[in-house]
Amino acid sequence: MELKKNISLKEFNTFGIDVKADIFIEISSLDEMLVFLANYKKDFYNLPLLILGGGSNILFTKNFEGIVLKINTKGIDIINEDNEYIFIKAYSGEVWESFVDYCVDKAWAGIENLALIPGNIGSCPVQNIGAYGVEVKDVIYELEAVNINSGELKVFQNKMCNFGYRNSIFKNELKNQYIIHSVVFKLNKKPVFNIKYDAIKDELKAMDVITPNIKAISKAIGAIRRRKLPDTHLLGNAGSFFKNPTVSSAFFEELKVKHPNIIGYKLSESEYKLAAAYLIEACGWKGIRVGECGVHDKQALVIVNYGNAKGKDIADLAWKIKDSVYKKFNVNIEPEVNVL
Hints:
CATH class of the largest domain: Alpha Beta
Number of domains: 3
Radius of gyration: 21 Å
Largest sheet: 5 strands, antiparallel
Helix content: 25-40%
C-alpha cells in the first residue's frame, strides 16, 4: 500500500478525464484495506473518500480534493457446488469482462448476457449492472463489504442489498458507508438461456447457431455491443450515460398518442420502461458533436470524449440532452453515471 499525492486520474476513468486526486492509494488485500481504514479514522478523518474500481461509471468534472482509494483485490474461488449450481467468490478488483469470460469458458451460466460490460466486480452490485434481459442481482448470492467507520466485515445476503433497476442499498441508505470486498455468484450448471431480445436471436441466426449455448450467446452479445458501443480504450465513454425511465401505463398510453413510434417495455399492469435511446434520438442528439465531446453516432445513450473534453463539457451536454427530452416528452431521464 503506497500513498501518492497529486496524481492524475486520467488512466483510472474510462472517460479519460485528466483531473488530479490530492491523495491516491491502491489496496491489494483485505489486510491493507483494514490498515488504511484504521489510519483514515486517525489521520484523514476530515478528507472526502472516493472508492474507485474500474472507473467505468464516473465522470470527473473537477479535481478530487480528498483520497481516492483504488481497489485492486484479486482472486476467484469456488466455495461450493452441487449438481445444479456452483458458487463462485470473486474479489472486487477483478475485471468484470474477464470474469464473464472465465465463467463462460467453464460453462457456468447466468452472466453470459452481461458480456463486455466495463468495470470491476466490486462495482457491479452497487449499480446492479444489466443488459439484454439479465441483471446481476439475478445471480448474486451474497457479498462481503467492509464498514468504513468500524472496519467490520459484514455479509450481505441478496435480499439485504435492496436491488432495483440500476440501483442497490449501496447507492442509497448505505452510500459511502461500505467498501465491497468480494461477491459470491450462484451460477447454473444446467442453463436456462435468456434470448428473448430480437437482437440476440438475429445475431445467433447470423452465426448459424441452431441450438443456443453459453459461448454462442456470449459471443453474440459481444458482437452486438461492439457494433453499437465504442471501445473505451479507443474513445472515452462510460457506456450508457442515462437510465431507461419508467412511467405509468396511463402516461405511456398518452405518449403513444402523441408519439406513435415511442418504444416502451411493459413491466407490470401499472408501469412501463421507456427506451431512453429512442427519446434522445427523437430529440435529434444522435451523432451530434459539441466541441470535444458528443453523442455516439451508433447509440444515442452513449456520450463520448473525442480526446480533450473536460468533464464539465460532458456534464453540460448531458444536462442539455436531459432538458430537451423533458421538454419534448415530459419525461425525466436520470444519469447512470456518477457525476463528481
